Amino acid sequence: MTTVSPIPTFERQTRFRLVHAAALLLATLSSTASAQDAASQPKDPGNRFGEYELTISQLREPARAAFLPGINVVLVAEPWAHRVSMYSTGPIVFRPDSAGELLLSIGKLGSGIGELREPSGIALHATDDSQMLVADTGHHRLVAFGPDGEVLRTMGSFGSELGQLIRPTDVVFGETKIYVTDTGNHRVAVFDLEGNALTTFGKLGSGPGELREPAGIAVDGEGRILVADAANHRIVRFTADGEFDMAFGARGPNPGLFSSPVDVDWSDGRIYVADRGNHRIQVFDDAGQVLYEWGIHVIRPREGEGRLHYPSGIAISPDGAQAVVCEAASDRVQVFGPADGPASKYMTDPGLFSQGPARHFGMNIDASGPVLAIAEPETESVLIYAIEGTTPLMVTKLGGLGLLADDFVRVDDVDLSADGREIIASDSGARRLTRFRLDRAAESELRFDLQLGRFVEGASLDRLPLGEYAGVEPGAVVRDSAGRIFVVDLSQSRILRFSSRFKLERVFGSEGSGPGQLRSPTDLALSADGRELWVVDAGNARLAVFDAGGTFLRNIGERAGMDRPHGIALHPNGSAFVTDAGLHRVHIFDSAGELSGGFGKQGLGAVEFYKPRGIAIDGEGRVIVLDHGNHRGQILSTSGEFLSAFGARLYVLETRRKQD
Amino acid sequence: MHTKLQALLVSCLAGLAGACALPQPGGAVEQEAPAGGVPQGTEVLSNAGRYRVRYLPVPDPIPSGELFSMLVWVFDAESGAELSEPELVVDAGMPHHQHGMNIQPVLSKMVEGPMLVDGLLFHMPGAWTVTFDIERDGVTERAQVVLDVD
């Protein structure tokens, strides 16, 4: 295995004026050698990818990549390092041993010229390298960098009008146009090469030409636009003018089906899809017929050497010799070359999943009394556990993928009532809030029963009379003792408060970094007296506190060194427990809002985490952490002592045995 | 089949006219509708209490493995008023077997009468859960009942 870490010195530097010049130099120096290589090893059009070549590790959730023309150099968007980095994927002329090395980085966190926030997509023109485009997702814009690294222009601002964008995630050059997946607006935005907004196509939906959370984008050899329609689990193709051409795929594990395809590339008549939830790359012909796949599913977290875990990006080198796969969940990029064996050598054994999916436990949870509720994205369901004993036992499942009233499209968060009998779940995919009830007799022990949960009602946020606030994408949700529902609107980084009967009462917060403003809030919690609403303001790496009426009170933790806070649980004594997916840790804030401690570090052992997400405190004061990246839950004391772990993987049992 | 069914339904409707007038809101989850000397249907309160749903399988009892129909009335639980043309979805399944019906029922509104759910089929004996999802102003609420089929 070849694992190469980046050069820290370069990592911290911003070399705007050098990046493109260096790229051009590298391209010039390498072009002769590349031509010679191509001549000595003629490309076989029947080749399959599959053979593992290289890992570039210690990236920060690399989202997508793009090759520079003609050389073994790839640009990688690292959203949570707020930069784009350039790596070699093989020998380059003046540095034959440079494979996997960080060459340059561009960008740092900020809102100034050339500064980036969560960049997640990159585009280079196939023949004209006079500009590089970056989807500056957190700033809701594109940034065009010139040949010597200067910022040429920015395109877009937050909003839904022509020329505005909401969380654009990928960008690609057409022959004379720029196409952007305007993810938050569920459409593709089109600009000319000078950055003038031309038009948009696609709209929210599941019909022909409609999109739901479009992610990756590519252009094929005929100038047609391929879009990874992630939440519809399909690939959609449009003409260069934005007319719907065709779509293929649906949700499922079999060949030709997808689970959240988040990126697409095209090369030499083949369509490559990062099939994120199925942990594989699928390859199709131009008619949408599946040709082959590669990717062996990781079982033990962060296994490498060709094994894949939630691939988030795919890029094929211009000469067709290499494929780069980004794996945001594992903080790495893997480079693959041509297959050297049968297709089965590079595929997950289908029997592995014959007994159902492994629980990924995330992203959010809640606990109340003897009940633990987990939003489970693998099956789009809410899992209900009894947590009276040492180890939680699953007793029933609510929902499941579908469009019926009690189904979910993308379940995001759950909230349990104080008595543990009623559940509110938010579904950003179907844009609904759903209420379930657990039919159990008072004080009776929870037992496995598939009929334990009863769908009570669901509110469609597209059909409620919300007036100017229509278009809500519900994320985190919490209720107060009066049954009022507070829910994050993911599309606008704001909070909505509904009555218990779904009447809109308040809207507060807005996109931004000022007082009372939020960026991508991920979780909510109410103080014990119900007077304060704590919001995990993930994009600003802080906590924001409002009163129940929506008046902003204060920010917390701005200087606590949090990296990617995600989940929050408030202890009855007023302290706050906050997971940090970037630092693999739980932070503790005292009732005054001061950082008072914490526990955890990166790893697979007890009190070790990998990208922890949801967190809850149960009726006995135990802290339950969804150790999302390790596919397990951990139960700890408030001081961070390990008590138990749960999950389907064998290493979870190992952890428990070691502790025993 | 359809002609026979319509004739049967007309007969049922005639008998039910009195029973369908004003169901009383109450705490009982499920109760028989007021007697009228003919098949009356059964009432169930929706899960959040907004509606009363009265249903009448045709034929009753429901045969296993044969197509049957159902008449459905929906009332506002608070006012007692019948919803003239509710947005209604009727489905059924066997949760313990983790399957539904293998057929898609069709809903239609009868003139001056209840909703007609046609093309229901319980393809095996056992406990079937029938769900009635009623949508109004963006909120869908469910009423449900478990029916044992021999």
Structural account:
The complex is a heterodimer of chains A (660) and B (150). Helices cover 6% and strands 42% of the residues of chain A. Chain A is built from 3 helices and 55 strands. In chain A, a hairpin with a 5-residue loop joins strand 52 and strand 53. By secondary structure, chain B is mainly beta. Chain B has one helix at residues 2-16; strands at residues 30-32, 42-45, 51-58, 67-76, 87-94, 99-100, 106-109, 115-121, 126-136, 139-149. Chain B starts with a helix and ends with a strand. Chain A binds chain B through residues 404-406, 435, 437, 450-451, 454-465, 501-502, and chain B through 47-48, 89, 91, 95-96, 98, 129, 131, 133, 135, 137-142, 144. Strand 35 (453-460) of chain A pairs antiparallel with strand 10 of chain B.
Summarize the structure.
The complex is a heterodimer of chains A (660) and B (150). Chain A has 660 residues and is mainly beta.
List keywords for this structure.
heterodimer; A: 660 residues; mainly beta; five-stranded mixed β-sheet; 3 helices; 6% helix; disordered N terminus; B: mainly beta; six-stranded antiparallel β-sheet; four-stranded antiparallel β-sheet; 1 helix; 10 strands; globular
